[in-house]
Structure prediction request, 176 residues.
Amino acid sequence: MAPGPFEGELIRLRAHEPEDVDRAFTWLNDPEVRQFLGRQYPFSRKDVTERLLPAPSFASALFAIVRKEDGLLIGDCGLFGASPENRGASLGIQIGDKTCWEGGYGTDAMRVVCRFGFETMNLHRIDLHVLAWNERAIHVYEKVGFHREAVCRDAMFRFGKYYDILVMGLLRGELR
Prediction:
């Protein structure tokens, strides 16, 4: 039997619950985790609550990533800015629990959220932006089928200097 639209081999996606806020608040304010996000400033509990708790919808399908083995919340991912006319959306993902980095959870979550986008939301295209120096993330994105499409030169200022951002895209039928 094929996995459901919210399940992979290692993870399951679900809606966020109020009890997720404290754990996410900790990650989002960890400089080692936040260095990969587009936001440089600290998050308040109110920020985190507003970010996580709206119900997933076509316009903003944000999901909690939990380990299947024990139900532990390890991160979140989502499809944002979905356009019904263009059948496209942008993807964001974070594995906030650093003990789950390098464990295959991010790759599994990418496959599940992209499969959901193509099979359930009827998307044709999913894109994402990634800091050009984030080789671990780029490796995962390419492994699941994303292609490098553009470089936005000196697009983000971090740690006292400017960095390039890569734009990557995945079309229906390219998911590996």
In short: The domain at 11-171 is CATH 3.40.630.30 (Aminopeptidase). The helical segments are 20-28, 31-34, 45-52, 105-119, 135-143.
